[in-house]
Amino acid sequence: MTGIQISRRSVLIGGGLALAGGRPSFAQSGKEIVIGALYPTTGPSAQIGSDARAAFATALDIINGPAKVDTLMGGGAGLPSLGGAKVKVIFADTQADPQKGRSEAERLITQDKVAALIGCYHSGVSATVSVTCERYGIPFLCADSTSPSLQQRGLKYFFRPCATDVMATEAIFDFLDWMKSRGKQIRTVSLFHDDTIWGVDSAKVQTQTAQARGYTIAADIKYKSNSPSLTAEVQQLKSSDPDVLIPSSYTTDAILLGRTMKELGYEPKNLVANSAGFSEQSLYEAVGASLDNAMTRDNFSPDLSEKRPVVSVINTMYHEKANRNLNDMSARQVTGLLVLADAINRAGSIEGEKIRAALVATDIPGDVLVVPWKGVKFDTQGQNIYASVSILQRTGGRFRTVFPSALAVAEPIWPMHS
Hints:
Layout lengths: L3 E3 L4 E3 L5 E2 L2 E2 L1 H4 L2 E8 L6 H19 L21 E8 L4 H13 L5 E4 L3 H14 L3 E3 L15 E2 L5 H17 L6 E7 L2 H17 L2 E8 L7 H10 L3 E5 L2 H13 L8 E2 L7 H7 L7 E4 L11 H13 L5 H20 L4 H9 L3 E2 L9 E2 L13 E6 L2 E6 L15
Parallel strand pairs: 5-6, 5-7, 7-8, 8-9, 10-11, 10-12, 13-14
Antiparallel strand pairs: 1-2, 2-6, 3-4, 14-17, 15-16, 17-18
């Protein structure tokens, strides 16, 4: 991949990193700002790390140039308030392990002297990394983890631009309510989720929202993450026969779920997923047509280019690096790094407290973002109050936005199997 050098312990995006006395060379020459990125780059979730590299490489092309892009930080001149300093990103492998994430965060902070950290996809990893950042007074930009508990711990250095699972669940049930208003009979839902922080938090919010909206929960099935078999769990789902299945599964589990449903002959009437694995191309390649017309809640879809031309420009940049389109996760990652770079630029400093103050003061309009949010403005817990979620349907080999109406480019196919 252009502009990426791979070493034994980390991956550097944007060119070589010169260290002097264990500190970023920015401290010596004023020419670069170093940010640490924590993602799984090996193991079952390695594709997430690979996509994140391409996402951050895309964001760095936008920030550092030379091309100008009509988006946040799109001047292509580095960070103007820091003399045109270029942004660099160092990757560290979390292996999807919270304790590995903690140790790698400490290494990036104490040895590589990063100005901030960004990550971490898995909510359990983001939980430990953000506490580590708090201890060192280093800003943590939570680009893509969605567990609502992450923002409820009184952390000063935690900031999340993307939507939480509370927002996502509200969007799912807003969609179901809308479908009911159009004459669809939807009474029961079944929840399917792993035993991680994200899975458990998701199910809790989904249960509360379903009950508040008058839906019956036909089944609430928790399984062990990375389980070797989901046969018993899928048999339970099949027996519950819900009007809507709402799965919360990372990619490897989503693939196993899809294959097991196919083997056992279970075709959900409708499936509206909680993103994660159901936003990944690898799932649909693995299971084939059995998940045609499945839906997922997401922050992004490439079809937004029909309403916002810059989406096509940034998607093309990403595709050249990843050989795939932006998806929910990679769009959040591009946005997250641009938001963080904007804050560092406004801070005019690599001091943690000054960057934190700039993040607190963030107020970015939506029309300069690749995601369809109203903007970025953080509340007192570090959560973006303007984040939002859309419902996409996988039809004809691609995702199409079907809800909300203001962003929709297609009518939903309901039920998913004719």
